[in-house]
Write a structure and sequence with these properties.
With 327 residues, this protein is mostly beta strands. It has a single domain, classed as Methylamine Dehydrogenase, Chain H (7 Propeller). The chain contains 1 helix and 30 strands. The strands form 8 sheets. It has a 4-stranded antiparallel sheet, with no helix packed on it. A 4-stranded antiparallel sheet has the order 2-3-4-5, with no helix packed on it. Strand 22 and strand 23 form a beta hairpin. The longest helix has 6 residues. The chain is globular and about 55 Å long. Pfam families: WD40. Keywords: mRNA processing, mRNA splicing, Repeat, WD repeat.
Length: 327
């Protein structure tokens, strides 16, 4: 395990639990991070530093889901006010509101940014055409309990959803039909795709499971010492991170499942973790109302993390010299 001390950046501003996070791709202006929070005010930040850029104001209830399109020009949010909203991520302007009949728990942009996927407590998935926003959405029904999360596959031909009915389901976008149902012994707590779109990551109970996104076969799974709420696989698939009920951020070797790091920084259960698109940092959101940025390689100069001692001393004392974020 690493002997260097992890010093996360704490991003304050929210007043309620932070329940979901999403990064953009790397753009000419860097990359960006959006947070969904029960305070109803999703926030946009610079992804590598956590610097606040703006708050999207307009929801009248807790925001449960948030997403950025790949070039960070648009944001989407889903909330307890029974709406999903699309925003201009450049100036914060609300572009469109899509009315639902129940709480919207998740949103996702298609890889090309032309469509918006929503999942709600109606147990229904919808796909809206962002070029024809007044057209009726495509609808997908089959889940028998509240939908927790849903994602587009990279080719846009399928969507993947997880629900309280202890299933993850794969759907064909064109026919609006269910292709496959994966059953789990407990309710899936999170759903994610690897950066290349080839692996589905599902957490349930104390388990983090990895599934082939084309064959829908389980690749491997690992048990954790406490209930897991969220997990994310590094872009190069060397490591994965998890967070859960015991307030601790874990890093594991993906091939072996060996625990590499365990850091306590939050003061409440961790609801969401995500790697940045370059894999240099990961973000976490918690019941404590904060989101934090952590270094993937502890002790590396990156973003706001700077050496506090000369390089030659650092090299001679690698085990005892942490790097600290700038004040």
């Amino acid at each position: 395990m690493s002997s260097l001390k992890q010093t996360p950046l704490t991003c304050s501003g929210h007043t309620r639990p932070v329940v979901f996070l999403s990064f953009s791709d790397v753009t000419p202006f860097g990359y960006f991070l959006i947070s969904a929070c029960k305070d109803g005010k999703p926030m946009l930040r610079q992804g590598d530093t956590g610097d606040w850029i703006g708050t999207f104001e307009g929801h009248k209830g807790a925001v449960w889901g948030a997403a950025l399109n790949r070039d960070a020009t648009k944001a989407a949010t889903g909330a307890a006010d029974f709406t999903a909203k699309v925003w201009c991520a450049v100036n914060g302007e609300e572009l469109k509101t899509f009315q639902h009949k129940h709480i919207v728990k998740c949103v996702d942009f298609s890889h090309d940014g032309d469509y918006l996927l929503t999942g709600s407590q109606e147990k229904i998935l919808r796909i809206f055409d962002l070029e024809k926003t007044d057209a009726e959405p495509r609808m997908f029904s089959g889940h028998t309990a509240f939908i927790k999360n849903a994602l587009f596959t990279h080719d846009g031909r399928q969507i993947v959803s997880a629900a309280d009915d202890k299933t993850v389901r794969i759907w064909d976008v064109n026919s609006c039909s269910e292709v496959r149902k994966l059953e789990f012994p407990s309710v899936p707590t999170s759903l994610d795709l690897s950066q290349d779109g080839k692996i589905i990551i599902v957490t349930h109970g104390n388990t983090t499971a990895f599934w082939d996104a084309e064959k829908f076969e389980k690749i491997k799974e690992y048990e954790s010492p406490s209930p897991i709420n969220t997990a994310c696989l590094h872009p190069d698939k060397s490591i994965f991170i998890t967070g859960g009920e015991n307030f601790i951020m874990y890093k594991f070797n993906y091939e072996t499942g060996e625990e590499l790091e365990a850091f306590k920084g939050h003061f409440g259960p961790i609801h969401c973790v995500r790697f940045s698109p370059d894999g240099e940092v990961y973000a976490s959101g918690s019941e404590d109302g904060t989101l934090r940025l952590w270094q993937t390689t502890v002790g590396k100069t990156y973003g706001l993390w700077k050496c506090v001692l000369p390089d030659e001393i650092l090299n001679n004392n690698a085990d005892s010299t942490p790097l600290k974020p700038e004040a």
